[in-house]
Amino acid sequence: MTVFVWLVVAVFGLWAALRLLPWDVDFAWVQLVAFTPTVALLSLIAPILALLLRRWIALAAGLAVCAAFATAVLPRAFPGSNPAASGPPLRVLAANLKVGSVPSDALITLVRDLRPDILALQELTPTAAENLRTAGLGELLPFYAGEARAGVGGSGIYSRHPLQLTDLIDFGGFGQARATVQIPGARVDVVSVHPCAPSQKSRYQCWADGLTALPHPDDTPKILLGDFNATLDHARIRALLATGYQDAADTTASGLTTTWPATPWTFHGLPIPSVTLDHIVVDQSTAVHKFSTHLLPETDHRAVYAEVTFAAK
């Protein structure tokens, strides 16, 4: 039993160690590391097993592994530091439409309820864009920039304020619309984030390139929002945040709130733990006042919403 106890400790210890590395170990790890919060909870099995079997050294090692997981994961459940920003406020919403499947009336109802100033959509198809136009989205958010596409690669930004498309970050056919939005008192750089999903090894590179191409903070306030196809445990997201960004959910003690799958899924009969793939990321000089997720019909992602205030210029 001693060997078995140490094997359990080693498995969780290896996971905790790999999660700390600043690079992608392997394509398979890119998929697995998303489940780190679930594994962190399961890691309690190691010290409990060691305690029951009176393996004291293994118990100490198991507790050390749990401490490593706790250091990485638990801060997301507590409020982060928030600057005392006094500039223009903004409400933002992002939703993955799952190949345009979300009914237009459901999305517009959510927009009416939350009253976002900016709406970023992923997997925006031409049919979905036309349905939203017909249903009256333009009456709520009259300005638009982006490119609707058949399939999963479409991306769009709807705004209450004038905006101009500045780029379409595109790797592997996944467009990420980037636009400058002129709000009262500030100009904001907005990206509707959606790198390709690393569902197979051949798509790893377009996923990595799509995340790497996201802009870093500068003098213009930035908001990156949407389906990142990555969690706070992915090295590339940690590297992005290290450039001067903060995750809105993490800042508001909602960092363990999951967004995908929005409804229960199974893989070969086994339930898939929910993970946090959808984010709203802002400069560290921007204050985040509120974060929430919202269920929409016919999509496997929850919509994400935040209220922020920019630093005064």
From TrEMBL:
<keyword id="KW-0472">Membrane</keyword>
<dbReference type="GO" id="GO:0004519">
    <property type="term" value="F:endonuclease activity"/>
</dbReference>
<feature type="domain" description="Endonuclease/exonuclease/phosphatase">
    <location>
        <begin position="102"/>
        <end position="301"/>
    </location>
</feature>
<dbReference type="Pfam" id="PF03372">
    <property type="entry name" value="Exo_endo_phos"/>
</dbReference>
<protein>
    <submittedName>
        <fullName>Endonuclease</fullName>
    </submittedName>
</protein>
<keyword id="KW-0812">Transmembrane</keyword>
<dbReference type="InterPro" id="IPR036691">
    <property type="entry name" value="Endo/exonu/phosph_ase_sf"/>
</dbReference>
<keyword id="KW-0540">Nuclease</keyword>
<keyword id="KW-0255">Endonuclease</keyword>
<keyword id="KW-1133">Transmembrane helix</keyword>
<feature type="transmembrane region" description="Helical">
    <location>
        <begin position="29"/>
        <end position="49"/>
    </location>
</feature>
<dbReference type="InterPro" id="IPR005135">
    <property type="entry name" value="Endo/exonuclease/phosphatase"/>
</dbReference>
<feature type="transmembrane region" description="Helical">
    <location>
        <begin position="56"/>
        <end position="78"/>
    </location>
</feature>
<keyword id="KW-0378">Hydrolase</keyword>
